[in-house]
């Protein structure tokens, strides 16, 4: 019998943008789409967060019932899922290296707590060094910016990476609200940024590193994660 892949999803715990009371958090589709894709494919999925407790959901990512992405609609009607996001464990209290993949969903909240988490940076570096799958979508690659290899070089240096583009940030009117522009920062760290048209699905894989550009990229991200896991002989 093949071993079920174990996937750890780590969400933001930032409910407001630092320096203001503007609400932010997780962009729900970026969690629900891969979450259900992983579950439906038979993976063992654990949901955690940076600080533990309730995961803040960006109110802009949830429309009236019946008007959302199918995975969001499913989540809104899923009592088990609602219980899970209502009370998560801090990711660093888990045996993180027992997982085969980590997934970092986005939302603007990630821009405020992912880069500041030394524990997340170390986990990303450890996973990458071990050849385990590291996946991030939209603003999720904010969790990559502080990760360093053993020699001190950025984990993203020389790697093909997709993330929420500067032009997309300008389009949503939040370029001045975030602490830095994500693709600009990743480029400065040596990442080879690739992108599709704004707000269109675009995801890429560079070995064990899987990244996607925006909420629409959450579905192709999941497929690339399984491709990477298959090659690692754990899927």
UniProtKB/TrEMBL annotation:
Family note: Belongs to the peptidase C56 family. HSP31-like subfamily.
Domain annotation DJ-1/PfpI: ranges: 30-221
Keyword terms of this UniProt record: Glutamine amidotransferase, Lyase, Stress response
InterPro entries, alphabetized: Class_I_gatase-like, DJ-1/PfpI, Prot/Nucl_acid_deglycase
Transmembrane segments annotated in the record for this chain: none
Organism of origin: Paracoccus niistensis
Name of the protein this chain belongs to: Type 1 glutamine amidotransferase domain-containing protein
Superkingdom of origin organism: Bacteria
Gene3D superfamilies per the UniProt record, alphabetical: 3.40.50.880
